[in-house]
Write a structure and sequence with these properties.
By secondary structure, this protein is α/β, with parallel strands linked by helices. It has 4 helices and 4 strands, in the order H-E-E-H-H-E-H-E.
Length: 92
């Protein structure tokens, strides 16, 4: 399994955006929480986002956990700071 499959980032078919399912991120976050690897999870996500300029978030209702949302917000702030654009979309 490659890193991109692990985080489930995937290209948005026919568009130049990458999709991140917040539901799938939440599931990975829960796994990382139990393994005490949350920091590593978000480090990998930040590195993966270096390869794209547009990100579409789906299933954002899964961001109800404060810690998850704060960690993702920090990654997205870095992404936006280098010129990335975050789009919010409906479920896929």
């Amino acid at each position: 399994m490659n890193r991109r499959d692990f985080l489930l980032l995937r290209p948005d078919a026919g568009r130049d955006a990458t999709i991140l399912s917040c539901e799938r991120l939440y599931m990975r976050y829960v796994d990382a929480e139990s393994a005490e690897t949350k920091a590593a999870l978000f480090d990998v996500l930040a590195r993966d986002l270096d390869a794209t300029t547009r990100l579409r978030l789906t299933d954002t209702s899964w961001l109800s956990c404060d810690d998850l949302r704060e960690r993702l917000d920090a990654v997205l702030a870095r992404f936006r700071g280098r010129g990335g654009r975050v789009l919010k979309g409906s479920s896929c």
